[in-house]
Amino acid sequence: MIKIVIAFTFLTVSLFAQHNRIAKISPQIKSRMLKGGSYHVGCPVSLEKLRYLRMRYRGFDGKTQWGEMIVHQEVAQEVVVLFEELYKMNYPIRRMKLISDFKGSDWRSIEADNTSAFNCRSATGSKKWSKHAYGKAIDINPIENPYISRSGRIAHRASFVYRKREHTLDMRPENRALLLPHDKATKLFRAYGWKWGGAWRSVKDYQHFSK
């Protein structure tokens, strides 16, 4: 059974290999990560265990866009499958750039509503490494899906309007980008065993999925 699942996954990835790509961290990508501050001495995972992904996604304008992401090698193929499924279901994504394009700043990346994964940083409000530092967490459309603290605080002003979590009838891309418990996009990640921050009890991190 395990061999069948692995073979099916490989076949699924191969079917759209002309669209999406998985590669080891090249010298060029390494340079971008170091200069951009997303990777540095002391990170809990080596570059050899990370993978660079090039994936297509549906932009807020409805058109096909191409994005970049870095994840751990253990989840790389699965992430490509997940984002291809998001593309097929027309789930909109604002942008998808490496966190190094934002100087390794989670704040700047969120302000740009950037969907991203690897970033060698501590977890929010903690001194422990974030799942992002291992390449095993993804933040999707962080403005529409904000982090809300125990006290109810939202740090990014553009996210204030999304405190109320419901889809409206106009179905603008910003509205469709909201991740709710019974949405296809949310259920897709959870079906693959990813934990969703929107289901946390104390704080809510609607953008966050971790493996």
Gyration radius, rounded = 17 Å
Q: Regarding quaternary structure, how should these chains be classified?
A: single chain
Structural class based on helices, strands and sheet pairing: alpha+beta
End-to-end span in angstroms?
Answer: 22 Å
| Global geometry | globular
Strand order of the largest sheet: 1-2-3
Order of H and E elements: HEHEEHHEEHHEEE
What number of structural domains do the residues give?
Answer: 1
Contiguous low-pLDDT stretches (5 residues minimum) are 2-14
H/I helix tally:
6
Strand content is 15-25%
**Average pLDDT rating:** 92
Q: Work out the helicity level.
A: 25-40%
What is the makeup of the main sheet?
Answer: 3 strands, antiparallel
The overall strand count is: 8
Key structural traits:
alpha+beta; 6 helices; 3-stranded antiparallel sheet; 211 residues; globular; 8 strands
Give a description of the structure.
α1 (2-15) crosses α3 (76-88). A hairpin with a 5-residue loop joins β2 and β3. It is built from 6 helices and 8 strands, in the order αβαββααββααβββ. The chain has a 3-stranded antiparallel β-sheet with strand order 1-2-3, with helices on one face. A 3-stranded antiparallel β-sheet has the order 4-8-6, covered by helices on one side. It has one domain. The model is unreliable at 2-14 (pLDDT under 50). It has helices spanning 2-15, 27-36, 76-88, 106-111, 173-176, 184-191; strands spanning 21-24, 50-58, 64-72, 137-139, 147-148, 195-196, 204-205, 208-210. The protein is an alpha+beta fold and 211 residues long.
